[in-house]
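Subject: for your reference before the review

Hello V.,

The reviewers asked for a structural picture of the protein, and I figured it would be easier to keep everything in one thread rather than splitting it across files. Below is the amino acid sequence we used in the manuscript, unchanged from the supplementary table.
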Amino acid sequence: MLGTGSFASVTQIQNQLSEDAQAFHIRQNTNLDPLCLMASTSASYNRAVLNPLNIEYSISFGAQNGFDTCGNTGQGADVSSSAMTLNLSNITPFPPFEAAETDYSFPGSQSANFGFSAQVWGIEDTNSSLEAVFVKTGISERTNPSYISVLAGTQYSGADLYEMNYADSCNAFFDANNNLLACETVTLDNNYDADIFGHIYGWKTVSADMPANGSSSYRGTLIGIGIYGINNFLNLDIGASTTTNCGINSPAYTDCSHTYIYSVSDQQLISVDFAAKTISGTISLQNHYTISSLNNTGITQLTIENANAYYTPLHPPVQNFSITGTISENSFSGTISNAHFAGEIIGYFYGPQAKEISAIIRILGVVGGDYENSGAWSLIVFNGLKL
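And here is what came back from the structure prediction:
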């Protein structure tokens, strides 16, 4: 989105960028009690330009006590409020920096529209020891050479979705002063802790420039990450959503993790009545995938045509979500639900005269839905352009 320009101008543009986030946390205590799922109380994802060749990233969440959410089985399954901060030179990316590609392609009809990538992060504590190691997998809509998203057509806003799988140690490189340079690969993962967060960003519409009358429709894209059937994956009686091989040396990408379903959709509509200060719409998650490795062949599309056993139980419950909400200045919030899920939506207007919108959606399985007994959740981001 930043394009090219002098370091000073790029820094000024970046400093004017607004960034918002929400998350789900998955935690397990040392007793290996059942997993504790918590919706974040607060979340932030910020970037700062350090110099023409380097960017600093910082991720933080509000502190949460697992016992407060999950009772005795959540004792010790807590969320820390410590910020996780490092810069571009300390990150090992997939695809590598030297590769011609900047992300890996989704298969099928969305191959030119969405991509995914990953980074291995290692965070030092004050004693120059590894405090946190994780693999951060991100999904976003691609942009054209003018930094306009290829499907939604947005240029003042954007939306990404990330899954952070925490590990225990990595193949780390240190300089002569014992400062961490980078984590190259994960060497041990013995826990199921993870954070899934939606990140929306851009140049928000100033309140004085918000339309006071009229109605508009916004057409855009959805990106979702979810677990459907926490205790009984997709209700298929093949086991829980967690994967195996915790504690092995040099784990693979999917070891000691969760079987996430990644979804993307285009041509989704949200309507806005500026006079009544309301939002509404019906949206659906259309295309579904699993990721097994970090390369262009590591993502598989789930379709009924390829006789994938996951598709039939997965697809119908994530259709026809109804949205209702209200507008306050340049933001909006509301509820979203269908027969299987219910949750919340928060978002903002971006660009001149509220030209674009972005939103974060969090949903949980409900009583009477397909996942009432097995448990399910999903985190979704929307990015759209006014028609």
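For the response letter, the relevant points are probably these. The chain has three helices and 23 strands. Residues 253 and 293 are 6 Å apart (CA to CA).

Happy to draft the paragraph if you're swamped.

O.
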